[in-house]
Amino acid sequence: MIPKRLQAYLQKQEIAAEAVSHRTVYTAYDLAQTTGLKLEQIAKTVLLSVQPGYGEEKAKYVLAVVPASHDLVIDKIKRLLKVKKVSFAKEVVMSKLFKVKPGAMVPFGAMHKNIPVIVDSNLAKMKKILVRSGSFTDSLFVRAKDVIAASEAVVGAMTKKAKRH
């Protein structure tokens, strides 16, 4: 079931979304296998910690939305955001600060304390993508351009094609 808070957000933003119920899955790969979609069509939402500069500035968080078929390239993200340091946020941050389980984050920054969103250019080219809904049993088909517009996301190259076995 899609959380009511997310449903209200989508309605307020006038985002057309198609709910997709599926068996419980924890990874993008399993989601692709379950739905029969290509990994390129599935969006992973990754919480990153970014250090703006060299001083004592506090780390900030950014959501990176990328195709499941690709791996993040930290150096590309540093250049895109013009920051000194980028790392994957700890799972405890996701659960305590953002009240969401790892692997279930939605790609809308406004749903997570208005944190900035960056979208990989490969994903931005897609018409429709499948995103997580905050649960492990339901996902949403949305237009990539709606994710970008609703989050005022920065779009840029930040991934490389993943090597699969």
UniProtKB/TrEMBL annotation:
SUPFAM superfamilies linked: YbaK/ProRS associated domain
Pfam families membership: tRNA_edit
PANTHER family: CYTOPLASMIC PROTEIN, MULTIFUNCTIONAL SER_THR-TRNA DEACYLASE PROXP-Y
Residue ranges occupied by any YbaK/aminoacyl-tRNA synthetase-associated domain in the UniProt entry: 22-147
InterPro entries in alphabetical order: YbaK/aa-tRNA-synt-asso_dom_sf (IPR036754), YbaK/aa-tRNA-synth-assoc-dom (IPR007214)
Protein name: YbaK/aminoacyl-tRNA synthetase-associated domain-containing protein
GO molecular function, one term: aminoacyl-tRNA deacylase activity
Species name: Candidatus Uhrbacteria bacterium CG10_big_fil_rev_8_21_14_0_10_48_11
